[in-house]
Design a protein that fits this description.
- It is a single chain.
- The protein is an alpha/beta fold.
- Helices cover about 50% and strands about 20% of the residues.
- It is built from 16 helices and 12 strands.
- Helix 4 crosses helix 16, helix 12 runs antiparallel to helix 13 and helix 12 packs antiparallel against helix 14.
- The chain starts with a helix and ends in a 14-residue tail after the last helix.
Length: about 425
């Protein structure tokens, strides 16, 4: 009897079931240990989905096996009856067992260890160590994440969120993501890249919780801003400073290319060649320039005042976002006045673009909120999408992203995270 109780602990069942026998068998030229189990009477005939008591429907497919954690180098399986029950809410379904999640062929401990490993080790290590297929790993991640999101509302307490998109695979496939700025968690992710996809998040959020959101950071895509503000009636939209400065860098590059083409048409090939090699000197921040790049910038200041003014406009806009509050607003308005009068077409066009988004830019410099955290999460998700290559289902990819960045990675079986 002591050995049977020991096997209950080894398999992670504990006192949630009764071990009735253990046998060592050889199947397909492989040695395995099969632990026969039965449920306590109080745990029988419960719905596998809601765990409520339900009427017995039939014996299902008879006895079923669940893969447990290995005993040394030998695979271990739990074997028990798997009858079907008739639930008032979910209809006919397989009865619940306390050692495994619904519709799983592995125990909870096995699932949790795989989920922990997939967020801490390589794909090859998980597959080789646990002796499962990569497709099974995706299904396990989906089960663990679904369990975690059912246990706790992932949208509870949202006040400051960031919205962005990330491309994955080929063919312009995108995932929309929503990040909580206060906790750094990935709270929602879905396949798609349009307003209906994003609206799906706000439909899940609901009007009551959406009204508690105060700040939303995003790039300047109008459909993101319109969707967010129409749903979050008490929120301010903060446009990401990185994207705004990138507009100025792109406008500067337009001026540089125009100047280079003009010099070539005028036959001044020496200056045109030297200007072509000045691209990085114009792009980089002044504090990051090498001595050679500083010399090139000085050459531009001496020989091409129009291009140098464009460079100064780019740098002045960058400095706006290094200040906060009224100072930043005053600097932005001064920059708008300068760009409007610059007589440089690319920056006059940029003036109109930034003036259109002035409210969102002011909100960003007032509250000091950017999409930096969201972009950081995006970088980690790009690595995960490469790891997830081989998943046939996008749902499993999404589950892996939530498992790693959403805070759903479980502790290793038998251990708890130190407080």
């Amino acid at each position: 009897m002591r050995s049977l109780r020991l096997w209950a602990r080894v398999t992670g069942v504990g006192n949630r079931g009764v071990v009735v026998g253990v046998r060592h068998v050889v199947e397909a030229d492989e040695e395995v240990i099969v632990v026969s189990m039965r449920l306590h009477s109080r745990r029988r005939a419960r719905c596998g989905r809601c765990n409520r008591r339900a009427g017995l429907y039939d014996s299902g497919d008879g006895r079923r096996r669940w893969r447990a954690l290995d005993a040394g180098t030998t695979k271990v399986f739990i074997e028990a009856a798997a009858p079907r029950v008739s639930c008032g809410e979910h209809g006919v379904t397989v009865a619940a067992v306390p050692w495994a999640r619904h519709d799983a062929r592995h125990t909870r401990d096995f699932d949790d260890q795989v989920a922990w490993l997939v967020t801490h080790t390589s794909k090859t290590a998980v597959v080789e160590l646990m002796r499962v297929s990569w497709r099974s790993v995706g299904a396990i991640a989906a089960r663990v994440v679904a369990d975690g999101r059912a246990a706790q509302d992932p949208f509870d307490g949202l006040e400051r969120i960031g919205i962005d998109e990330i491309s994955y695979r080929r063919g312009h496939k995108y995932l929309m993501i929503v990040v909580d700025h206060d906790t750094g968690r990935l709270v929602w992710i879905a396949e798609g890249h349009d307003r209906p996809t994003l609206q799906g998040f706000f439909d899940l959020l609901g009007p009551q919780r959406a009204s508690k959101i105060r700040l939303v950071s995003a790039d300047a895509a109008e459909w993101i801003g319109d969707c967010a503000i129409s749903n979050c009636t008490n929120a301010e939209l903060c446009l990401d400073p990185f994207h705004i400065v990138r507009w100025a860098t792109q406008a500067l590059d337009v001026v540089r290319r125009h100047t280079w083409n003009l010099l070539r048409r005028l036959g001044v090939h020496g200056q045109a060649k030297q200007l072509k090699n000045c691209r990085y000197a114009l792009w980089k921040n002044p504090e990051d320039l090498t001595d050679r790049q500083q010399s090139k910038l000085a050459w531009i200041a001496r020989h091409n005042g129009r291009l140098f003014r464009a460079y100064l406009l780019k740098e002045q806009l960058r400095l706006v976002f290094q200040h906060r509050g009224a100072d930043a607003v005053a600097m932005l308005d001064t920059w708008l006045s300068w760009a409007r009068r610059s007589q440089i077409p690319a920056f006059v066009e940029l003036y109109h673009r930034i003036k259109k988004h002035r409210i969102g830019i002011i909100a960003a410099v007032t509250h000091g909120l950017s999409n930096g955290l969201t972009e950081s999460v995006n970088t980690k998700l790009r690595l995960i999408t490469r790891i997830a290559y081989g998943f046939k289902s996008t749902d499993n990819l999404i589950a892996l992203c939530l498992l790693d960045r959403g805070g759903y990675c479980p502790d290793l079986p038998g251990r708890q995270t130190a407080a």
